[in-house]
Amino acid sequence: MQAYLEFEKQIADLEGKVRELRAMGEADGAMNIEDDVARLQAKSEQALQDLYRKLDPWQKTQVARHPDRPHFKDYIAALIEDFQPLAGDRGFADDHAIQSGLGWFRGRSVALIGHEKGNDTQTRLHHNFGMARPEGYRKAVRVMKLAERFGIPVISLVDTAGAYPGIGAEERGQAEAIARSTEACLNLTVPLISIIIGEGGSGGAIAIAAANRVFMLEHSIYSVISPEGAASILWRDATRAKEAATSMKITAQDLERLGIIDAIIPEPVGGAHRGAEQIFDATAQVLEKVLDELADKSGDELRKSRREKFLAIGRNL
């Protein structure tokens, strides 16, 4: 069953009626319901287009968090051949919120790092809802250094509400691990491409997204803190998250205008969860194009351009 967001009630009602009509038609083969189904289907599709054409930042936040939205493992299965996972930070443990490994993308060897949230209760708990502990970022650094040693480009897929703020994570140096991972991104001498596929929350996101090229899916979000966290700090009221989201400029459209990201990857009408194959194809085209553009650049050029990219943010506002 399709999971509907709170603002999609009209769509849920229309699509529910379509399903009911089809069930009636299957139960009674003599009924001619095709015209009614087509009419309702067209009305539903038009309503969906109208709705998603004017989403506000809080609605986009809900879409970015949709439980059926494709995650890291879905992109790996769709885009990468012969993926070989790499586990552990070689210091403490393996963090399951950050996944990494090596594989082939359209005939090119690549290293991959990304957040995995899980898609049901068991896997969400296993992956800690995509909130990485210090060993996750130290694993990311290990994989980036490995990729650099063998001249392999790095692709990171970001989808986290933020780094895990638990006591154990703080005891093991969460802030230092994030800083080291960000530093590793900035100093890489191989191409680094990052895509915000869902949520890009705070240091937990930038730690693997300080890249040569940063892209966002159309309905993803990217911010220094979650809307709920911002509302709790500013007004001591997490229920004002919608107001915070509107003020924070967290949408792909806002961030492209501000020069924080390089471009937006369009999503199917209704969000990536309604057309996973379409979003996989669009993502693959962007990755192939950018990998070709960066392939001939030297390590010094890649590092310098990455540095200049981030130093330039905010200068022309």
Account of the 3D structure:
The protein has 317 residues and is an alpha/beta fold. The chain has two domains: 6-54; 61-311, Alpha-Beta Complex (2-enoyl-CoA Hydratase, Chain A, domain 1). Helix content is 49%, strand content 15%. It contains 14 helices and eight strands. Strands 1, 2, 3, 4, 5, 6, 7 and 8 form an eight-stranded mixed beta sheet that branches. The protein is globular, with a radius of gyration of 21 Å.
Brief descriptors of the model:
single chain, 317 residues, alpha/beta, 2-enoyl-CoA Hydratase, Chain A, domain 1, 2 domains, 8-stranded mixed sheet, 14 helices, 8 strands
Summarize this, please?
The chain is α/β, with parallel strands linked by helices. 49% of the residues lie in helices and 15% in strands.
